[in-house]
Specification:
- The chain contains 10 helices and 15 strands.
- The chain folds into 3 domains: about 80 residues, Arc Repressor Mutant, subunit A (Orthogonal Bundle), CATH 1.10.10; about 100 residues, D-Maltodextrin-Binding Protein, domain 2, CATH 3.40.190; about 100 residues, D-Maltodextrin-Binding Protein, domain 2 (3-Layer(aba) Sandwich), CATH 3.40.190.290.
- The model has no long low-confidence stretch (mean pLDDT about 90).
- β9 and β10 form a beta hairpin.
- Helices cover about 40% and strands about 25% of the residues.
- The strands form 4 sheets. It has a 5-stranded mixed β-sheet with strand order 4-3-5-15-6, sandwiched between helices. The chain has a 5-stranded mixed β-sheet with strand order 11-8-12-7-13.
Length: about 300
């Protein structure tokens, strides 16, 4: 029995819920998949799959075995990718984590051309504003905005920077007035991104001087698109990245405030950083995605 093939057959049946569906994905005959799983169960002396005429489910032993088998297959695939990816072109799977709105606004428009350019690359793109653990979540690359937390176990590569703008709609400013100085924000509804603290400070810099303003408001969320929509709808004043609000500013739907200042939330920097594990140095897949950001998707300050 080919143990590796048997593991692939077993995990595919477990994930698809049937022998026929697994066979189609593996491009094998159903009878071949059945024989592989039968042989695996016989060699282990236990039932891995509960089978009825209507469904196939994991047994208790099968559930335990599936977790380990899946990790083995993932490790083999990763080992294969690390070797084949040192060739002349990016080859194999690439798992990337990017912030939600940055991925939608700055990366997704370029994915068609990216995939067409690298036909041997398989991209698994996860959009999440959570801080991903590259090891446990098995990401090859993570893109972070702001100040990336230092981590000695990761390679940190700065890619560039972007601007942040304070914006509000014409309707809001007409109703509640236009603040002329940052300190006047304390009298306004500020739309706040969730950074983990109830108190939030926006930092304004002009030349050598720095002004910090503790902002308040009735809306706080962990999604920047929600903040943009709230600003467009006249709910308050928002601090958002330039790549998200420039279309609204250009169309006249949003007004940029405090033109003479550079502004950031708290002490965060407006940086774009790529993080990857040391074993990804020299990876053609990782380099290809970073090049995508540098050449087409990376916002300019």
């Amino acid at each position: 029995m080919d143990k590796l093939s048997a593991l692939r057959a077993f995990t595919e049946v477990a994930e698809t819920g049937g022998f026929s569906s697994a066979a189609r994905k593996l491009e094998l005959a159903t009878s071949s998949v059945t024989r592989s799983v039968d042989g695996l169960e016989e060699s282990l002396g236990t039932v891995l799959l509960n089978r009825t005429t209507r469904q196939v489910t994991l047994s208790d032993a099968g559930t335990t075995y599936y977790v380990r088998a899946k990790k083995i297959l993932d490790d083999v695939a990763e080992a294969d990718a690390l070797v084949t990816d040192r060739g002349t072109e990016p080859t194999g799977p690439l798992r990337v984590s990017v912030p939600v709105e940055f991925g939608k606004q700055c990366i997704s428009p370029h994915l068609g051309a990216f995939l067409a350019k690298y036909p041997k690359l398989e991209l698994d793109l996860t959009l999440s504003d959570a801080i991903s653990d590259l090891v446990s979540e098995r990401f090859d690359l993570a893109i972070r905005l702001g100040t990336a937390a230092p981590n000695a176990a990761l390679v940190s590569r700065p890619l560039g920077s972007f601007s942040r703008f304070v914006v509000a709609s014409h309707g809001y400013l007409t109703a509640f007035g236009t603040p002329r100085e940052p300190s006047e924000l304390t009298a306004h509804q500020c739309l706040r991104f969730s950074y983990g603290s109830d108190q939030q400070v926006w930092t304004f810099c002009r030349g050598e001087s720095q002004t910090k303003v503790a902002v308040t408001g009735r809306l706080k969320t962990n999604n920047s698109e929600v903040l943009r929509e709230a600003a467009l709808n006249g709910s308050g004043i928002a601090l958002l990245p330039s790549w998200l609000v420039l279309p609204g500013i250009q169309s006249g739907q949003l007004t940029k405030l405090f033109e003479d200042y550079e502004v950031n939330p708290n002490d965060a920097q407006s940086l774009v950083t790529a993080l990857y594990l040391p074993n990804q140095r020299g990876s053609k897949r990782v380099k290809a995605f970073i090049d995508l950001l540098l050449k087409t998707a990376l916002p300019q300050p």
